[in-house]
Amino acid sequence: MNRSPKNRTIQKGDPVIEVRKLARRFGSLQALKGIDLSINRGEVFGFLGPNGAGKSTLIRTMVGLLSPSSGTASVLDHRMPEEADILRKHIGYMTQNFSLYQDLTVRENLDFASEIFGLDRYIRKERIKSSMDYYGLSERQDQKPAQLSGGWKQRLALAVATIHNPEILFLDEPTAGVDPENRRRFWEKLFELAAQGKTILVSTHYMDEAVRCHRLALLKEGHLGALGTPSSLTSRFDGRVIEIDAQPAAAVCHHLDQHEDVASTTQLGNLIHLLLKEKPQDSLQLIRTMQNTLEKLNFSVHSIQMAAPNLEDVFVALTQGERMDLAPNHKSHDRKK
């Protein structure tokens, strides 16, 4: 059980962030267009969208670095950015670029951050030690960031962002350019933090990361295009995905891309993942027709069958302009590790 800076008792599942009709303009460019969100304590909440969708602008507005052009953003009952200073000790922020001081060692970066966040000098030493132990940095405490690999820089950046034990953690594409093994370890730490009751907001381009979030907001051109758990988002595309094993796969893809009912095709090894624009009335009839057509064109067809949709299908549909009704906020979560 935590308390907000205004002493409201916040339990797991209670809202800690409220965004209402949030808009942000940069001159003639409107980066955010009327965003509505409610994010609960203990959630790992993801933002997914193409470059320029507004993910970073939304996070920077919620941490108080940008002022809304209209609408409101409230964090722990405090309006941003007017009351951002009050929340400085309650939130952590990890930017796209590792916000580390290159001339300082690992220990010195943590020490400087703990001082900036106003930690009492009597507990600073113990907090730094426990943070280095928790993130496995103890053996690298005398190294500078330039001497660290991308994965270790990432760990240090997360340690710096959490040195003051914040209630909410904002992560803006924190794993960009990091190898899969280090990304997996990074997410293990995020779920450990969420289990402690911390709320984590993370933007990502990686589908394997997005599917691990409790809930996702898909953004496109400043709009909130879809909102829900990964399973609720993908379930909207049940009956619209076909998996084809046919050769030569590249030529089959090229042919199917021209079909008026096909939204997209993706080659996955020898298989073709096909997303339909709409759910067919008779899936079996469509499969038989598709197989006959491909065989008449002298393609070698081994199998055609319906398949389960994935988040990439949701992402592709959104970027192609498909409208999705927003799902309501959910108290229950898909907890996936």
How do the helices and strands line up, and which of them pair or pack?
Elements: E1 2-3, E2 9-10, E3 15-26, E4 29-40, E5 44-48, H1 55-62, E6 70-75, E7 78-80, H2 84-87, E8 91-94, H3 106-116, H4 121-134, H5 150-162, E9 168-172, H6 180-195, E10 199-204, H7 207-210, E11 215-220, E12 223-228, H8 230-235, E13 241-247, H9 249-257, E14 262-268, E15 271-276, H10 283-296, E16 300-306, H11 311-319
Parallel strand pairs: 5-10, 5-11, 8-9, 9-10
Antiparallel strand pairs: 1-2, 3-4, 3-6, 6-7, 11-12, 13-15, 13-16, 14-15
Helix pairs in contact: 3-4, 3-5
Summarize the model shown.
It is built from eleven helices and 16 strands.
What can you see in these coordinates?
The protein is elongated. The chain is an alpha/beta fold. The strands form four sheets. Strands 8-9-10-5-11-12 form a six-stranded mixed β-sheet, with helices on both faces. The longest helix is centred in the middle third of the chain and has 16 residues, at 180-195. The protein has helices at 55-62, 84-87, 106-116, 121-134, 150-162, 180-195, 207-210, 230-235, 249-257, 283-296, 311-319, and strands at 2-3, 9-10, 15-26, 29-40, 44-48, 70-75, 78-80, 91-94, 168-172, 199-204, 215-220, 223-228, 241-247, 262-268, 271-276, 300-306.
